[in-house]
Design goal:
mainly beta, seven-stranded parallel β-sheet, six-stranded parallel β-sheet
């Protein structure tokens, strides 16, 4: 990975990742920091521009708990990710899963191999293209399982994807049919 954000609230600016062998920006375990002016070029060997997960625990049967708190909620703005094109790896330039929340705005995704944004393994978080009010919880420790949201601005740009959005979560308001980017 280029940069890993596992838990915590560290804020970052001006990060650049070139030709990473795995994921450029990887978050998990309740990370709730902010990032601005982020750049990644994955090349042919890079996996995803982002791999953002949230799972911080398991249920009593040992199954993943996609609603464990705190919910990951990276707030990444002014981010450009250039994929590997026809020679790159498949599976989505941005991969968001395992109940992650977050805010993504002023994002440019270009030259993906197949999918622009792939969302899967959702919990109870809202998936929306309408930014919730500032008073809406991002999914803090002690919050209910339904707290938190994943916001992807409709003003973001996805260029060159055969599939703009692959949504692997049923019952969510944002679907591939109404996804705008």
């Amino acid at each position: 990975d280029g940069f890993e954000f596992f838990g915590g609230t560290v804020n970052v600016k001006y990060l650049s990742v070139l030709f990473v062998g795995d994921d450029a920006f990887d978050s998990d375990e309740g990370y709730q920091g902010k990032g601005q002016f982020l750049f990644a070029m994955t090349g042919a060997q890079g996996n995803h521009g982002t791999e953002m997960d949230s799972k911080t625990g398991s249920d009593s049967s040992g199954n993943p708990n996609f609603n464990s708190m705190p919910r990951s909620h990276p707030a990444f703005y002014s981010m450009t990710i250039i994929g590997g094109g026809a020679n790159g790896r498949t599976g989505g330039l941005m991969r968001l899963r395992e109940g992650t929340g977050g805010k993504f705005g002023n994002v440019i995704l270009t030259n993906p191999t197949d999918i622009g944004v792939r969302i899967g393994d959702c919990g109870s978080e809202d998936v929306t293209q309408t930014l919730p009010s500032a008073s809406t919880s991002i999914g803090m420790s002690g919050d209910s399982a339904s707290a938190g949201y994943l916001y992807f601005s409709s003003n973001n740009i996805i260029d060159g994807a055969s599939t703009t959005l692959s949504m692997g979560c049923s019952g969510k308001a944002v679907t591939s049919a109404n996804f705008q980017a």
